[in-house]
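Q: What structure does this chain adopt?
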Amino acid sequence: MQDFSQLKKDYGREQADVIVNITGNIISGQVMGETAKLLSERFGKIMQDKESISINRNDTSISRSTQMDHALPASKISNLSSGEFVGLVADNPDEKIKLKMFHSEIINETEKLNAEIKNYLDIPVVTMVTQQQVMDNYYQVKVDVKRLIEEEVGKLKEEKERQEMEADKETLFCNLNGQPMGKRVSNSRTLLQTVKALIAGAQHHIVRNVNTTMLATYYEIGRMIVEEEQEGKERAAMPTRSSFN
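A:
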């Protein structure tokens, strides 16, 4: 992690504060802004000697005092050079550390490092890959992804159609009371008994429809006869024998 703002971006302010506050070991290079201020506050304050000199025409006065001040000011953390680090370490109960804060610098032996770099060997080439091969693989991946999507979409459509067909069958084999009759036959009922019950239900449904239709037909015939006999009167005349001949 280079800055506390990264924690806030990835985890939010509250969780970032929790992570920073429970951390025991802190090592930091040059940082700026809010991170430098937080580190300075985390390192705490120590008693520091202050000395001030006042010069005027007559004499020179020197005053010395001690006061609490930040052990590592934010300005010092912001001006660290490359290779410089500040930090705070945690100790164990059986291994106490008196000086937990540190300000150190990594000393690099430039001559030895440069000599070592000159002896580095290039990584051997395993195989040569052309730009055309990269593009061919790229387009092949796109084709494979498209094919996989089409296959999965086709499976989903087939499953949906199968469910709709099952629903249509269930609706088809329902009796008038709305009780499904097309379900799987249980172990206690034979296939023949189920078929008989299905036919009986269908016959009952047909008889009721026929009776209803006949009743409506007879009613309509009677209404037409009454209207013909009344001829606009409130009551029709008594029929004579010749009326039925």
